[in-house]
């Protein structure tokens, strides 16, 4: 039996494909994702996670707040929502000028990738609660 995919889900998938093929269009992709979030009550947890994934990397506080709200709304139904909620929380801290809590935010500079400052008081056990690997693993991934 074929699974019926909603129009919103199809549009979110198309936006994700656009972002993968043309990362320079990220601002346009996020604007389109925000329009979908505003126009539709996203009730399907997978749609919420897909929209959150498109918005979480933004430098716009409202977009990151929307990503966090969507991820938290899907939190109980989908494990993939946990790291997105943590990433949105960390991004909001960075946008406010505070060090990130979890180690999910990286900065590309001069061809190298480095992790944004991390709050040293956050233990790996707290990262694990949010479905994130230990900080050493996150640092290794940033350097790969």
Could you explain how this protein is built, in words?
Strands 1-2 form a two-stranded antiparallel sheet. It contains seven helices and two strands. The chain is globular, with a radius of gyration of 16 Å. The protein is mainly alpha-helical and 144 residues long. The protein is 58% helix and 6% strand. The relative contact order is 0.10.
What's the total helix number?
7
* Spatial arrangement of strands, main beta sheet: 1-2
Q: Helical percent range? A: 55-70%
- Overall pLDDT metric: 88
User: In what range is the share of β-strand residues?
Assistant: 5-15%
Number of strands: 2
Largest sheet: 2 strands, antiparallel
- Uncertain regions spanning at least 5 consecutive residues: none
Amino- and carboxy-terminal Cα gap: 41 Å
- The radius of gyration computed from the alpha-carbon positions, rounded to a whole number of angstroms, is 16 Å
Q: Please identify the oligomeric state.
A: single chain
Order of helices and strands: HHHHHEEHH
Which shape, going by the Cα principal axes? globular
Structural class: mainly alpha
List the helices and strands and how they pair.
Layout (H helix, E strand, L loop, with lengths): L6 H15 L4 H14 L5 H11 L5 H14 L6 H15 L10 E4 L2 E4 L8 H6 L5 H9 L1
Antiparallel strand pairs: 1-2
Helix pairs in contact: 1-2, 1-3, 3-4, 4-5
What would the keywords be for this entry?
single chain, 144 residues, two-stranded antiparallel ribbon, 7 helices, 2 strands, globular
């Amino acid at each position: 039996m074929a699974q019926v995919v909603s129009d919103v889900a199809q549009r979110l998938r198309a936006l994700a494909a656009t972002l993968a093929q043309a990362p320079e269009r990220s601002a346009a992709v996020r604007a389109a994702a925000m329009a979908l979030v505003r126009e539709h009550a996203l009730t399907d947890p997978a749609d919420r996670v897909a929209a959150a994934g498109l918005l979480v990397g933004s430098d716009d506080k409202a977009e990151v707040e929307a990503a966090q709200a969507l991820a938290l709304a899907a939190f109980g139904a989908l494990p993939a929502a946990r790291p997105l909620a943590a990433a949105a929380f960390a991004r909001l801290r960075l946008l406010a000028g505070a060090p990130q809590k979890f180690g999910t935010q990286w900065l590309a500079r001069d061809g190298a990738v480095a992790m944004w400052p991390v709050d040293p008081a956050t233990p790996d056990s707290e990262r694990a609660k949010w479905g994130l690997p230990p900080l050493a693993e996150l640092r290794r991934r940033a350097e790969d």
